[in-house]
Amino acid sequence: MLDFELSEEQKQLQALARDFTRKEILPAAQRADREERMPEGLLEKAFATGLLNPELPEELGGSGLSLLDEILIAEELGYGCMGIYTTLMASALGLTPILLAATPEQQRRLLAPLRERPCLLAFALSEANNGSDAAAMRTLARRDGGDFVISGSKMWISNGGEAELTVVFATTDPSQGHRSSVAIVVPRSAPGQQAHPIHHKLGQRASLTSELVFDEVRVPAENLLGEVGAGFRIAMQTLDRTRIPVAAASVGVARRARDEALRYAKERQAFGRPVADFQAIQFKLADMEIGIQSGRWLAYRAAWLADQGRPHSAEAAAAKAYCSDMAFSAANEAIQIFGGAGYVGEYPVEKLLRDVKLNQIYEGTNEIMRVIIARSLLRA
Amino acid sequence: MILLALDGTGAGLSRASLELVSLGRQLAGDSPLGGFLIGDPVQPLLDQARCAVDQLWLLRGEGLPSTDPQRAAQAAEAALQAAEAQLLLLPAGRLGRSYSPRLAVQRGWALLEDAAELQLDGQQLSATCYAYLGRIWQRRSTHPPAVVSVKAGSVSPAELVSVPAAEVRVLEVATSSPLEERDFVGQKLSRVPLSEAEVVVTGGRGLGSQEAFAMLEELADLLGAGVGATRAVVDAGWRPYAEQVGQTGQTVQPKVYLAIGVSGAVQHLSGMNKSGYIVAVNKDPEAPMVKSSDLAVIGDLHKVVPALIQALRGRRD
Amino acid sequence: MKILVAVRQVPDAESRLEVSEGNLDLSRASLVLDGMDEYAVEEALLLREAGLEAELIAVAVGAAALEETLRAALAMGLDRARLLVGELADPLAVARAVAEVARDEQADLILTGSQQSDWDSQALGPAIAACLGWPQVSWCHALQLDGGVLRGRHDVEGGSAAFEVALPAVVTTQQGLNEPRYPTLPNIRRSRSKEVRSESIPVTLADGWQLVAQGSAAKARLGQRIAVSDPQEAAAELLSWLEQTAKVRL
Ligand SMILES: Cc1cc2nc3c(=O)[nH]c(=O)nc-3n(C[C@H](O)[C@H](O)[C@H](O)COP(=O)(O)OP(=O)(O)OC[C@H]3O[C@@H](n4cnc5c(N)ncnc54)[C@H](O)[C@@H]3O)c2cc1C
Ligand SMILES: Cc1cc2nc3c(=O)[nH]c(=O)nc-3n(C[C@H](O)[C@H](O)[C@H](O)COP(=O)(O)OP(=O)(O)OC[C@H]3O[C@@H](n4cnc5c(N)ncnc54)[C@H](O)[C@@H]3O)c2cc1C
Questions:
Q1: Do A293 and A349 share a domain, yes or no?
Q2: Ligand 2 within 6 A of B287 CB?
Q3: pLDDT tens-digit profile of C90-141?
Q4: Residue from C122, C173, C230, C240 whose CB has the most chain B CBs within 10 Å, to mutate
Q5: CATH 1.10.760.10: does it fit domain C2-200?
Q6: Domain, as residue range, for A282
Q7: How are strands ordered across the β-sheet holding B180-186?
Q8: Less Cβ around it within 10 Å: N or C end of chain A?
Q9: Which residues of B touch C207 (CB under 8 A)?
Q10: Closest ligand 2 atom to the C-alpha of B230?
């Protein structure tokens, strides 16, 4: 049986996120992009509304959203500003490994602050010399009595330096590959950490991206997720889930591109009539719509599989690659429909393109998505 | 009989009352037209009212006139009984719209609110009303007996020429209300009342400060216009609530509406989108106000408004 | 003590409304809790947060789809809801139905928006009060409740006034009264288990008005533009437009 209807509660969630986007994100997005920071007070509002870390389970004082619930929010917030949403999304990215691999005791201890105040989390996997090939990481976690001592650096870390907790992926022995990988939760308070913000990004400038440097950072062994050797698997399981919100947020961006283009095309006159009268423009709009509809169902289905506890790695990869490519193309065509006006910052569409480019890169590039899909095809 | 709820000031009948009179005459045809005044009118008001209708009731009693809808409804009820009226027309102001539903419920009558283009065809009463924040017009019809609050400005005010002729009956009415009101604070009215101004100049948050309204007032003076404000501006405390135009403020319908630094939220539009011409001054070409305007000046209002003032002053000299 | 909050479901202020062949097409509009009623919901919550022991009940009259709007009020924090399903002709008929619920619940206070942005009516609050023989306080923008007595300020003809009235009463709400909260996500989750009691009511067309025709009120506008490069020139152009097109005497 198929049922494409959202539940009443899901519709409410969606309405809440849409409302939040309209009141808090849309009016603040341009400025956040220009000033390269999150709008003042936005995280506090997101927290008060329950939109920050909504995956936190109910028994820990959170809302315990399913992945399908979560991506309803992702689409709405992505519509408003992909950069702002990335700050929230990267926090979920940091939270997910803890939810997947931490013991109940670890969860209670580590996640207690999340119900009290607005906390961001981060996920530190990529390094300057290895992104796609994550298993080749160099950051070292040395066992020292009851502690791990971390040294090395992580590159491109969203929320890096601001996050209360960072899940750092490291190796206890670089010669052993992923068999010696570990995932360790590092609190911001642990001495020896430095964060260097990376400025002048092409897009998603509201979101903070940093290089993290660890100089003999000491954390208790109680902060290890799973066992030694499980780090790489935890990272991959995390990304299998979190790519789905990337897909849904991309659909949001595409929807925004469609709405902006549609509005402009109906108003802009050329040759004595609205440019929307030209079939060449209509087809661009129709293609955007095709992409939005198909992308959304890919994302919904991948999330549904994940919520059912079924394998979803290839589906998540397909949704992420398709939706971000689709949204990039929608933003690109929106600029085309705007003509010259699309190329300047006074209008919203050039930002969509700059922002959504990242969706094709982070949480695994779209080439890597295709590697995953092809691998699963060949294995079957 | 058709009965009118009249009111006025020391100088005479209010504009809204004069509008009711011309509408009442249209509907009544050759039949006599009734009216009532609540409280003790001063002579000029009484004289005008006696010119306006054929039968006039003066409703007197402790606590009258009152802004309390329970008292107003009781007083009007007494007049309706005395006049054996089938139709009551009242102005769609704050008081009229808050006590007319009480009357309608108590008497089991129909209610039409904020009605324009009222027509009475035998037993069929119909009117044009706006719905969905003024975005839709609706023709609504019902049967008398009915209470109808009449939209301001929907008919032209009557010109009173005849001599005071109406016979006057005084009705003592005892009204009571569990509601106690005190500390009345009157609205500070601009020199040109918004509802009567031919030109309205409204400033929005785009002005940036309370001080910037000085130049808006000067512009309004030069144009002989009333000054309006958006809710954003009223909320910020820059202008009094009496100047707010929109869903929760006043509805205006001037010949020309100048919206300066106003984005044009639907709640604002619903209060002014029936204006004859709309002119927007806004730096954002995508602002909804720009899209709903006849003429949009796209640019910085801090440059445009001083230039306008200068040009108008130049014409004066 | 029981507080009843009467809510309406209206098209979102931003949605574009279109009429075709006399029918209003709402299929593309998103239907939401009326903005004016949000102040009423919020005020009920604030009264309780100020220490009042009260049960807060949302009530709506109309189409079955109103359940969604009632859920939104529950998600903001009201306790339970009553839904009366029936196609009612006009605000007075709605008021009668709400008054029935108030009697049934033995409510002490009824809150609702000062204007309903579907029929652009201001009759609901006053008419409910009249049905019950209660006093009404319209256009309230400050409210307190002390030992069964409401005190606050509200807008009246020509200005505003302080008021005092003993319960039971109907209060209509508006901007300035409070800042309505978001239905937070945890509250949305919690509201799932709250009761919405739905019952159908007979249609009463007795004395209401009927809709005979409708259309879009949007006026066609000229859509002319002046892009400012030289403010003096733009000002001159604007003034001559006012004289020539709008026929304003300057
Ligand atoms: C703004 C921003 C935020 C980020 N946030 C985070 C974060 O919070 N946490 C985190 O851990 N990382 C984060 N990243 C890093 C991101 O995930 C990596 O940049 C990404 O995984 C690609 O890695 P790379 O940059 O090293 O590219 P490389 O791996 O060097 O790839 C270069 C090119 O080669 C292609 N390629 C590589 N291997 C293959 C292959 N096997 N087959 C085909 N093509 C291949 C890639 O697709 C790409 O086109 C962020 C990046 C950015 C830009
Ligand atoms: C239930 C409810 C009822 C409401 N009732 C009303 C009501 O009755 N009346 C009302 O007005 N609102 C009402 N609102 C509020 C409404 O939604 C808007 O928030 C409000 O109208 C915005 O006011 P604004 O246009 O002044 O401000 P903004 O929306 O902030 O717009 C400012 C505008 O100024 C322009 N601008 C800025 N700087 C310059 C410059 N230097 N030169 C030129 N242009 C510039 C900007 O481009 C922008 O378009 C209501 C809202 C609700 C929810």
A1: yes
A2: yes
A3: 899 999 999 999 999 999 999 999 999 999 999 999 999 999 999 999 999 9
A4: C122
A5: no
A6: 233-379
A7: B180-186, C159-166, C149-156, C136-146, C169-173, C109-113, C2-6, C55-62, C80-85, C196-200
A8: N
A9: 108-110, 142
A10: 11
